[in-house]
Amino acid sequence: MSNALPTGRTEISCDVLVIGGGAAGIAAATAAGRAGAQVVLLERYGFLGGLATSAQVGTICGLYLRDETGVEAVPVSNGFASEFAGRLQQTSGTKPLRVDRGLWVLPYFPPDFAHVASTVVGETKNVKLISHATVANTCVENSKIKSVRALAWNEPLNFSAKAVVDCTGEATAAALAGAGSENGATDQSPALVFVLENVDPTLALRGLLEARRELRVSVQKGILPALCERISIVPGSGKNGRFAFKFSLLPANPDLALWQQVTDWETESRALLEPLVNFLVNNVAAFRDARLESVAPQLGVRSGRRILGRARLADADVLNTLKSVQGIARGCWPMERWTAAPKPEMNYFAQQKFYDIPFDCLRPVELENIFVAGRCLSAETGAMTSARVIGTALATGWAAGTAAAFQAAGKSLDEAVALIRKQMT
Ligand SMILES: Cc1cc2nc3c(=O)[nH]c(=O)nc-3n(C[C@H](O)[C@H](O)[C@H](O)COP(=O)(O)OP(=O)(O)OC[C@H]3O[C@@H](n4cnc5c(N)ncnc54)[C@H](O)[C@@H]3O)c2cc1C
Question: Does the Cβ of 40 fall within 6 Å of ligand 1?
Fold first, then answer.
């Protein structure tokens, strides 16, 4: 009997292959399925949501217009992002929350996000989910992706699809197929999210300020490594003494290969958690009885590889709230860039305004039958720090999935753009 792996003869055909089940991917698969395509959704983990669940991000940004005075959160557009937010609110009772400068977010509990994502995708009958499936190769002929190779629970599978949607957050399929791309990992710092339970709720607010001060002093005295100062709270967390924190690292070193950089980030941040938590427990009253409840299974990498598309969303387009006749999604979050500084650089545009993301930002120059969405889309550095948020990723995912279904059915992409634009208003 041979112990060799099967040689990859399992062939699966579909109309639309969606790669990556994060915010963009669940929207893309649902859109393509509802448009009538036979869809396969591949996800490398055993649950859906991408960074929203694996990195336990905790709040959805990009759903509502910025507004310092209005009493209610106003959605930036109609469509799938609003539908998904509504389902999440129904499931978990969460509500929009206004934070700094009139920005509205929707806090969520990560398992609820994963549950709603599975429910929504599961309800779309012609979508087949294959989990633990990692795409590692593509075959291209005449500017079209002919087949995609994945390892699904360590078994090689071959997919042929009429259209492909890359929602990997790293433009992996597009890059494997030869699309031009750029690496955004040096643009922003990643963060590891961890949760402390049993924080004294009566002392929490003061405790957080005190924690910051104590950490700063200890870093200055060399008691703790400098990174330990870089913690911030996830807005909306704090119910029943359970607080989520983001522990930010430094942006990627351009001289390191990304796989090496990610390994170093994961190792370093996880090793620092124990001394960090012990320090809080021993030095800040509010944390005296606190315990580490959970740590995100995956480090949150804010920027990764993205395509150089037929159009590129520019920083100026975001700040000047560009409108486009090809606009297929609306962005309403400011540019929020996490650098080596302890706090993010924020660049706001006017309140109650939004910008359009043109359809061609989802299309690689070199390939005809692949669309990208979420963090993979074509954008300048600053523009991506706005367009990457979950609300906008849901919207671009929907657009990419709709376009892919139209292409697979031999219908015109102009028709797809017209439908998406109608659904937004
Ligand atoms: C620390 C941090 C804090 C953030 N805070 C917020 C916030 O408060 N609010 C907000 O709205 N946004 C926030 N963001 C941004 C937001 O979480 C992401 O930009 C957004 O979730 C991206 O969605 P996506 O679908 O494009 O990509 P991802 O969420 O990265 O999804 C990609 C999916 O593809 C899968 N995948 C990858 N490669 C393969 C492969 N080869 N084969 C198969 N599957 C693959 C992954 O497992 C994953 O499920 C934050 C990000 C970070 C890192």
Answer: no
Which of 389, 396, 398 to mutate for ligand 1's pocket (most ligand atoms within 8 Å of CB)?
389
**Domain positions in the chain:** 10-186+303-424, 191-295
Q: What is the pLDDT of residue 7?
A: 58
Question: What are the CB-based long-range contacts (under 8 Å, 24+) for 88-95?
Answer: 88/60, 88/112, 88/113, 88/116, 91/115, 91/116, 94/236
Q: What is the pLDDT of residues 38-79, one digit of tens each?
A: 999 999 999 999 999 999 999 999 999 999 999 999 999 999
Beta-sheet strands, E only, within 269-340: 291-295, 305-307, 327-331, 335-337
Q: Is the pLDDT of residue 24 over 70?
A: yes
Q: What is the number of the ligand 1 atom nearest to the C-alpha of 376?
A: 26
Is any atom of ligand 1 closer than 6 Å to the C-beta of 378? no
Q: Is the CB of 53 under 6 A from ligand 1?
A: no
Prediction pTM value? 0.96
Ligand 1 proximity of 184 Cβ (cutoff 6 Å): no
Please provide the CATH number assigned to the domain covering 10-186+303-424.
3.50.50.60
